[in-house]
Automatic annotation (TrEMBL):
InterPro entries listed in its UniProt record: 4Fe4S_Fe-S-bd, 4Fe4S_Fe_S_CS, FTHF_cligase-like_sf, Helical_ferredxn, LUD_dom, LutB/LldF, NagB/RpiA_transferase-like
Keywords per UniProt: 4Fe-4S, Electron transport, Iron, Iron-sulfur, Metal-binding, Repeat, Transport
The protein's name in its UniProt record: (Fe-S)-binding protein
Source species of the chain: Acidianus hospitalis
PANTHER family: LACTATE UTILIZATION PROTEIN B
GO molecular function terms listed in the Swiss-Prot or TrEMBL record: 4 iron, 4 sulfur cluster binding; oxidoreductase activity
Length: 224
């Protein structure tokens, strides 16, 4: 295994060094500072955010939290409930690199990326926020804890869902972003997901709501 990792490391490092643009997601975004929080264990994300001259972060609007303090908590909760606590890396990006070493005058850029761009994705999220039931699903932090305790997911795995979304949380997101009600139909309402969710989302209630919406359709709704 170590030999395999060494080969992959050598191959990927060359790609990182030569890349003009690094593209990442975001675990959380702080509204007050514009900072992006990224959590990982391998170190690939950190390399992606510092080696190329341009860093582009793409994330759903539900990732925006009021303050930097709020945003720093979310990745820790996510990693803890995913069984990966403590995470090896928690990266904080607040724009192009800068320095104030000379006469305390802040100058941009310094080392690292010279440009930083944040792309916010709606894709049904804003409309879901206006729905009293679906709004709750936007609290999901994608920790995947519900997968571990769902009897259906344990039986059939990630074929339950609409890629890239799977499991109980995926059934909610499949409807929000794609208008697809079919994944919700697999839910047997054991309630395990609700009990272990760190955000206390009533996932069975949300999925029952989506099921009812799907009864009057062919599985696809023009939700957007």
């Amino acid at each position: 295994v170590e030999d395999m990792v060494a080969v992959v490391r050598k191959f990927l490092r060359d790609k990182f060094v030569k890349a003009d643009v690094g593209i990442t997601g975001a675990n959380a975004i702080a509204a007050d500072t514009g900072s992006v929080l990224l959590v990982e264990n391998e170190g690939n994300i950190r390399f992606t955010t510092v080696a190329p001259q341009i860093h582009i972060a793409i994330a759903g609007v539900e990732k925006i939290l009021p303050t930097l303090a709020d945003a720093m908590i979310e990745p820790l909760v996510q990693s803890a409930y995913a069984g990966l606590y403590p995470p090896t890396y928690v990266n904080l990006t607040s724009g192009p690199s800068s320095t104030a070493d000379i006469e305390h005058n802040r100058v941009r850029p310094a080392h690292g990326p010279k440009e930083f761009h944040l792309i916010l994705v709606d894709n049904g999220r804003v409309k879901a926020n206006k729905d009293n039931i679906l709004r709750e699903a936007l609290l999901c932090i994608r920790c995947g804890r519900c997968h571990f305790h769902c009897p259906i997911y344990r039986a059939i795995g990630n074929i339950w869902g609409d890629p890239p979304y799977s499991g109980p949380m995926g059934a909610m997101w499949s409807y929000i972003v794609k208008g697809d009600t079919k994944p919700a139909m697999y839910c047997v309402h054991s309630g395990n997901c609700k009990e272990v969710c760190p955000m206390r989302i009533n996932i069975p209630r949300v999925l029952e709501y989506i099921k009812n919406l799907g009864l009057h359709s062919k599985g696809k709704l023009d939700y957007k």
